[in-house]
Amino acid sequence: MADVPPTRVERPTSREREREPAADPVRLDEVTSVGELGDAGHVERYEQVRTLGRGGMGEVLLVQDHRIGRAIAVKVAHPDPDVSEALRRFVREARIQGQLDHPAVVPVYDLGVRPDGAIFFTMKRVRGVTLDGALTSLRRGDGDALHRFGRRRLLTAFIVMCQAIELAHARGVIHRDLKPANIMLGDYGEVYVLDWGVATLSTDPDLGASVVMPVAALGLDERSESRGVGAPAALPLGRGRSPLGDDGGDLTLTGTSLGTPGFMPPEQASGHPVDVRADVYALGATLFEILTWHPLHARGAADAMIASTMAGADARASLRYPERQVPPELEIACVLATAARLDERTPSVAALRAAVEAFLDGDRDVERRTLLADQLAAAAGEAVPQALAGDRRARGEAMQLASRALALAPDHPLAQSVVVRLTVTPPRETPPEVIAAVEETVRDTYCVVARVAAYLYISWLPLGAVVLWMGLRDVPIAVTWVVLIVATASAMYYGSMRGKYDAFSYFVGLVISSAALATTGRLFGPYVMAPTLLTVNAVAFLLHSRRAWRPGSVVIVVAALIGPIALEEAGLLATSTSIATDHLTIRATIAEFSEPATSIALIGLMVVYAVVIGLAAGRLRDRRVADELRVQLGAWQLAQLAPQRR
Q: Does domain 35-124 have CATH number 3.30.200.20?
């Protein structure tokens, strides 16, 4: 088989598109006699099922088309002695509606005359609720309507309406009676623009014959007038659900009243010729009602609504209905579309549609993010009970889901609640990761303190020069003290550089430092300076000890305190202190108590002691403050997740 070259689709350039001919205009060839419509065997083909709606000018029937095998709607004119006028009116409506090939325009199937002489045309039967019915339910707070008819769905339907009217305008047709009652919303996303009975062509001689007439003058029967909530008191009136549906709604009537007060612009209400901007105004009024659930002009007597129209509409929804939170972009679209002056009004339906689409394009990402945030937050909320019951995996999943929700919608209340609740409620068992983090903090703190302690112990060495000045008497003890001080400083510094906080580093430092401080008792006795130094040293170590190390730490410190005293009592060390009834005598065992060296040594010892203790305490405090700052900063950051009261 020979290779078949791929089909190439030629796309016109923008310049070529400008040269393309416009859409064919709608044609309304005159029909001068009933015979020209023919008789398609109406009785045999169409079996009447029931009446869907009735008005002063005709009725809509539900029939079964036996030829095709489907249920359709038939619009039948009431018998009229002026046959030519009935022909003109019905042919006009059927052909305008039939030639507008758009999904939002109900297709017309047939046009003819029944055996009884009544003129009819058949069309698709559509089901659903009118936009007017949907808005009425929304105003009442109906839960089902609130779920079904969200703002996005209604705005999407509005765009479809605009597209259908754009096609009509391109074909030279002006609807002249756009309003929520003439818009059908199907259950599966369908949108239909109904009632083209008062539509006109832009070149129609009847274009300027628009007048407004009260209800009574048009012969609306009581059955039609009694139905519908808040409908304007001028015709044509399309109330409630569509006449093409299955609920028996009223027909939209036509006659000398071309348009509906509250939706027709000032030029149409005053009987002047109209152009496409009349439909722009009606769509702007419809958009206002979609956004606010309230009409642009307060419902009431026809004269009052006409007066409101002539005075100019106030389409600033943010002022009239602030609780509806109408986006400013859409409010501006309403204001421009319903301007009383033609030169200030939005020039085309396409421009109005573009404004709404621009809003939806910008809002779509936000809506998707909000929807995803809702889903993530809901999943996080479901995991909270398990998390609080001790399930570590559920806690982690809940926090991750809530965090992702907050990344999409930072002010999401459910996600904030999950994060705060799990944060302020600690798990029943401390996670290993937390234990490891605490261990790392303790190790880092120990290393810092050990390094500082090494420098502080080295600062004791100048005291040896003072002892020499006093007059050295016991060289081995003095050398031992110097060696122990250097060994302690080396052990502490080595431990800080090693970066490992274990029992070996801890106890080596504690033993050597306790021994070094215990030897100071050979200078001023074991009861004066040594106990204070040993106690402070013990506190510093115990602050950074593990629970299991504390008993051993206490034993080492006690041994350093009583060890020299026991050795003196055993005669292994020379006696340095004697206690009498009224005095305590300290004997010099390492150095002589010569003046002024002894006084200077005591003063220097106290100064060094105060400096060492002050520096150590300050360093510990700085570390504690830094840790507390981190905790408080984390708490503050967490608090920012919750909505702030202003």
A: yes
